[in-house]
Design brief:
9-stranded mixed sheet, binds 2-[O-phosphonopyridoxyl]-amino-pentanoic acid
């Protein structure tokens, strides 16, 4: 997916022109995948043109948690990172965009030991459309179970949104595309369902919403958490429980969630038809967009106005 360039990027405390936001080819993270990042969206309400970043603080807190696990000393507070995000969106005159904060170990040392490498931080913003393709949110996508296993808690912890994790995701994603699918579902070493390559996963069966527990080895997605809250509002029974691939094959509804993917229905799993997006998927999707557009007062705390 090509990047829609804008004018500026926030880099190490300064706003620099897009083309000048570069790094040395010997930067530590480029060689050893030692960075951590976030993915956030800013939405514009189509009715009143107001624009809001969704769960900005929660994302920056997760970035701090990722740094803690990865033993990276992040030189900016959550507040500073939130302020910098609003500043760079305004500077680029954007109303709706994707936001990509990245913390990486920069230039200065070689070898696996990162001691002495500087901690560099950027926040980039750009307009980004539907992550899983043009009509994905409307009609759903075909997915397949990957032959690659999810990185385990004792290999590369799925709780850390680290750049290194995405070698695993890239292998699964490319395999899925080779098989004609839009996205892959990863199982853990026990064969239990984890998540997509950049999304959490939900199923609905007999009116009950379920999603795998964090202990099965997956990212603690903020959209996942949002959907669990919205299910509660809509009085949809929801459980966190381990799922097998068969649970996906026989589910009434299946969907994926993520900041990039938003709430994307799944139309088939390994060629087993799920069908058109179901009633619960639709209801949650509708409420999700109402929340991110600022139409629901009780969720005002999740929004930072630009
Ligand atoms: N699981 C993985 C492996 C992810 O990469 C993501 C987010 C999620 C779950 C969902 O987390 P959240 O709901 O907090 O976004 N992926 C990033 C995103 O911006 C990067 C995707 C390219 O959605």
């Amino acid at each position: 997916m090509a990047i829609d360039e804008v004018d500026y990027i926030w880099k190490d405390g300064e706003i620099v022109p897009w083309a000048e936001a570069t790094t040395h080819v010997l930067s530590h993270s480029l060689h050893y995948g030692s960075g951590v990042f976030e993915g956030i969206r800013c939405y514009q309400n189509p009715d009143n043109d107001k624009s809001f970043v969704f769960r900005l603080r929660d994302h920056m807190e997760r970035l701090h948690r990722s740094c803690k696990i990865a033993l990276i000393d992040l030189p900016y507070t959550v507040d500073e990172l939130c302020d910098a995000t609003i500043e760079i969106i305004r500077k680029n005159n954007l109303k709706a965009c994707y936001i990509r904060p990245l913390v990486y170990r920069g230039y200065g040392v070689m070898g696996v030991d990162p001691t002495g490498a500087p901690t560099d931080v950027i926040i980039a913003v750009w307009p980004w459309g539907t992550y899983l393709g043009g009509d994905a949110l409307e009609n759903g996508v075909a997915v397949g179970i990957s032959s690659w296993r999810q990185r385990s808690n004792n290999a590369i912890p799925p709780a850390v949104k680290s750049t290194a994790s995405y070698m695993n995701s890239i292998l699964a994603k490319l395999e899925a595309k080779q098989h004609g699918y839009v996205e892959a579902i990863m199982l853990n070493e026990q064969g239990l369902v984890c998540e997509g390559t950049g999304e959490n996963l939900f199923i609905v069966r007999d009116g009950v919403l379920s999603t795998p527990p964090l202990s099965d080895g997956l990212l603690e997605g903020l959209t996942r958490d949002t959907i669990l809250c919205l299910a509660d509002d809509l009085e949809i029974p929801a459980v966190e429980e381990s799922l097998t691939r068969s649970d996906l094959y026989i589910a009434d509804e299946v969907f994926m969630t993520g900041s990039a993917a938003e709430l994307t229905p799944i139309g088939s799993v390994d060629g087993r038809e799920v069908g058109k997006p179901g009633e619960i998927t639709r209801a949650l999707q509708e409420r999700f967009f109402d929340v991110v557009y600022g139409n629901i007062e009780e969720y005002a705390d999740w929004l930072t106005e630009v």
